[in-house]
Amino acid sequence: MTELSTRSRWLALYVLCLGDLMIVLDSSIVNVALPSIQTDLGFSPSALAWVVNAYLLTFGGFLLLSGRLGDLLGDKRVFQGGVVSFTVASVACGLAPSSELLVVGRAVQGLGGAAVSAVALALIMGLFSEPAERAKAMGFFGFVMSGGGAVGVLMGGVLTGLFSWHWVFLVNVPIGVAVWLAARRVLPADEPVPRASRLDVVGAGLVTVALMTTVYAIVGGNDAAWTSARTLLLLGLGVLLLAAFVAREATAANPLVPLRLFGLRNVTVSQVVGVLWAAAMFAWFFLAALYLQQVLAYDALEVGLAFVPTSVVMAYCSLRVSDRLVMRFGIRPPLGVGLTLAAVSLALFSRAPVDGRFLTDVLPSMLLLGVGAGIAFNPVLLAAMGDVEPHEAGLASGVVNTSFMMGGALGLAVLVSISTARSDHLLDGGSSQVAALNGGYQAAFAVGAAFALLAAVVGGSLLRPRPMTGDDPHGPATAGEAVGAHP
User: Fold this and answer.
1) Which is the most buried residue in 54, 55, 79, 453, by most CB within 10 A?
2) Residue 342 is part of which domain span?
3) Is position 195 within any domain?
């Protein structure tokens, strides 16, 4: 990567973070607007889920392919192409006259989002090699990844409440144009790729179809039933395709994902932590918004404003606290403490009553999650990326994002299923509609708390950091303990 001045590196970081924030926002900004979208475009209750699922399906399916394309074609090219695709699709979504066209637009947004997310982290890791700078830069990116969900709910509520649901998509247009123009000027030029490097087309096809099939099975599991022939067949097909992909990668001359990547202890452990953490986080944003709307009867604007404390605290901890903790203590203490605080936050929400009050039943959980997510995300990302060579940074970034996306999709589907089953049981027992809904949310929050706590235990006990040093130019030591080597 072309050597840049300190000022240029930080300008590039801000552009990358803004681009990725636009993508992360889209996973949650639409949630608050769903009732308005359903009314205007005539979605059935079951079809409405595809406004979210179409995005998750293509996003999760194309992350690994996008990351590898970044390594082969250049991260800057893939980033800019993803921004263009996402921005154009946002226009189509915002102006969609029918439910079918909105779902198609969301699928294209997912493709563009996969391209942006898969290479943004790789570009940041290449820009910053000095330990303190890298930790600080990853604090910025960590806020985007973890705080984007809260900011998305806030923006979704404000835009829907003050204007209309169309603006949750159209707001991406000026941001996308600005990011594309700025990226042309501040991102370093792509380096030539050796001619020997080729895309493993068969492997790319196998893993993309496998991931899309698995995500499709997961997001449809609640409606079709988890034990139905349809769900089990799709999950089985996904597993078979993934097995075929692994077999292909073991023998391919230029594999899409070299299997040795998963022999790196910190890479593998961080993927497990990412799956568990994303399962808890996705569910928290989704279920907390539903609790405020359907149990406490908040309108869209009030729901958005309720997430302000989370956004503010998360931003402060990500940008001003996390990097200092990593530099002083390494990754395991802040990782363990942050994820434990997130687990406590979810546990508090699992006790929120039907007649809950914001100051006593909502705000404490909001603040704890802000602190926990704000300090935990930076070390998770550093651990995942630090063991790989620079020329495979795009691939590693795609793997990281895939683990978060798959964990989020799976966790959300499982926890919504738990919530629905509990609510149905309470309704059958004579509970009121609101009480049954609240009981379902409480059960789902409790399981989400267990996911976050398990992530804390796995990360805190299995990651193997090494002492802080800045001698290794490739990364394992340059990010401090957060990117420790294998034992």
Assistant:
1) 79
2) 6-189+256-483
3) no
The residue behind tokens 């994002």 is 401
pLDDT for residue 390: 66
Greatest Cα pair distance, the chain, in angstroms, is 69
Measured between alpha carbons, how far is 238 from 18 in angstroms, rounded to an integer? 33
Per-residue pLDDT reduced to its tens digit, 91-113: 999 999 998 999 999 999 999 99
Residue 445 near residue 325, CB atoms below 8 Å: no
DSSP 206-237: HHHHHHHHHHHHHHTHHHH-TTSHHHHHHHHH
Same domain, 230 and 271: no
Question: Domain check: are 298 and 426 in the same one?
Answer: yes
Q: Whose structure tokens read 């989370």?
A: 310
Residues 215 and 294 in one domain: no
Whether 480 has a pLDDT exceeding 50, the answer reads no
The string of pLDDT tens digits covering residues 445-466 is 999 999 999 999 998 888 776 5
Residue 127 in domain = yes
| Nearest-10 Cα torsion for 80, 165, 286, 173 | 10
User: What single letter denotes the amino acid at residue 196?
Assistant: A
pTM for the model: 0.77
Non-local (6+) Cβ contacts of 38 within 8 A are 45, 48
Concatenate the DSSP letters of all residues of 157-210 into one string.
HHHHHHS-TTHHHHTHHHHHHHHHHHHHHHSPPPPPPPTT----HHHHHHHHHH
Nearest alpha carbon to residue 90 among 165, 154, 40: 165
User: Which phi-psi region, left, alpha or beta, contains residue 480 (left: φ > 0; alpha: ψ -120 to 50)?
Assistant: left
Q: pLDDT (tens digit, 9 = 90+) per residue, 190-219?
A: 765 554 467 788 888 888 888 888 878 876
Residue 476 lies in a domain: yes
94 plus 240 within the same structural domain: no
pLDDT band at 469 (very low <50, low <70, confident <90, very high): very low
For residue 432, what is the domain's CATH number? 1.20.1250.20
pLDDT for the residue numbered 138? 78
**Which pair of tokens denotes residue 103?**
């779902």
Written as six digits, the tokens of 78 are 């893939």
What is the tens place of the pLDDT at every residue in 354-390?
A: 999 999 999 999 999 989 988 987 787 777 776 666 6
Q: Is the dihedral of CA 277, 280, 283, 286 positive or negative?
A: negative
Report CA 41 to chain centroid distance, whole Å. 28
**Cα 445 to Cα 111, 349, 365, 480, distances in angstroms:** 30, 6, 11, 34
For the ranges 55-59, 107-111, 468-472, the maximum mean pLDDT occurs at 107-111
Q: Which residue has the tokens 């707001």?
A: 171
Q: How many CB atoms lie within 10 A of CB 5?
A: 8
1 lies in some domain: no
